[in-house]
Amino acid sequence: MKTLLYIKVSPRNNRSHSHKTASAFLSAYQQKNPQDKIETIDLFKLSLPEFDNSTAQAKYAIMHGEEKTTEQVKKWANVEETIQQFKSADKYLLSTPMWNFGIPYKLKHYIDIIVQPGYTFGFSEAGYKGLAGGKPLCIIYARGGSYDENSPMDFQKKYLDMIFGFIGFSEIKTIICQPTLGDKETVEKAQDKAITDAKAIADEF
Ligand SMILES: Cc1cc2nc3c(=O)[nH]c(=O)nc-3n(C[C@H](O)[C@H](O)[C@H](O)COP(=O)(O)O)c2cc1C
User: Fold this and answer.
1) Residue 144 near ligand 1, beta carbon < 6 Å
2) Is 12's C-beta closer than 6 angstroms to any atom of ligand 1?
3) pLDDT at position 124, please?
4) CA of 108 to the centre of ligand 1 (A)
5) Residue to probe by mutation, ligand 1, list 42, 44, 99, most atoms within 8 Å of CB
6) In CA terms, which of 116, 135, 169, 196 is 20 to 30 Å from 88?
7) Average pLDDT of each block of 10 consecutive residues along the chain (205 residues)?
8) Residue partners of 60: CB distance under 8 A and separation at least 6
């Protein structure tokens, strides 16, 4: 039995295009892999640890090989718990809206928690090495407008491909739902295409 971790970002529930696409993916996946477990993290409902002064100091204490204070130990335990939950999955589905050409702040917060030296990446004289990857990851993007692969305004896909690549994910599948704002027919067509792509990828995932 494998565990698929679904990281849901949009707070818009049933009106969310990214979530609608993810639901189609998960139904197709569950049908194909009935023995697998699907765990969901809903980032707008989750209380993530603040990366405040003592949490940041804990991170630097680890990097400099220094003792952590009692408060720093407590704060760091919350960070470790979030990282362990992330790392314990076998496969990953992430669905996210584009907000201001990038990602919603809750997803950035989650990334700031889980991307940590010694946990999800390492470095040596040979350079950086991802420690969390070698596992399948599929990212679903929803955007009000339309952006082509080389758009200079896209800080959403470019950033997520980079950061998940940095922590070791080499097999990243992409599903794009765009445009989600505009005339009804165009939006429905975009949603239908994203759902078709989601089912096809889920079938092989
Ligand atoms: C705060 C906010 C910022 C947004 N910024 C952009 C943007 O920069 N570019 C864009 O194309 N759409 C933008 N949108 C529109 C969303 O990307 C679009 O509605 C998308 O479908 C949201 O994903 P969802 O349907 O899964 O919630 C923004 C929406 C919100 C709420």
Assistant:
1) yes
2) yes
3) 87
4) 15
5) 99
6) 196
7) 98 96 98 98 95 95 92 95 97 98 98 97 92 94 96 97 97 97 98 98 97
8) 66
Binding site membership of 58 for ligand 1 (Cβ less than 6 Å): no
**DSSP string for residues in 16-79:** -HHHHHHHHHHHHHHHH-TTSEEEEEETTTS-PPP--HHHHHHHHHHHTTPPPPHHHHHHHHHH
- Is the shortest distance between the CB of 17 and ligand 1 below 6 Å? yes
pTM over 0.90: yes
Domains in the chain (CATH in brackets) are 3-204 (3.40.50.360)
Burial (CB count <10 Å: 0-12, 13-18, 19+), residue 172: middle
Structure tokens at 107: 């997803």
d(C-alpha 117, C-alpha 24), whole Å: 35
Q: Which atom of ligand 1 is nearest to the CA of 11?
A: 27
Please, are residues 121 and 167 in contact by the beta-carbon 8 Å criterion?
yes
Angle 175-180-183 from CA coordinates, rounded to 5°: 140
CB 130 within 8 Å of CB 35? no
Ligand 1 centroid, distance to 83 Cα (angstroms): 27
> Which atom, in ligand 1's list, is nearest to the CA of 98?
17
34: Cβ contacts below 8 Å, ≥ 6 apart: none
Q: Given this model, what pLDDT does residue 8 score? A: 98
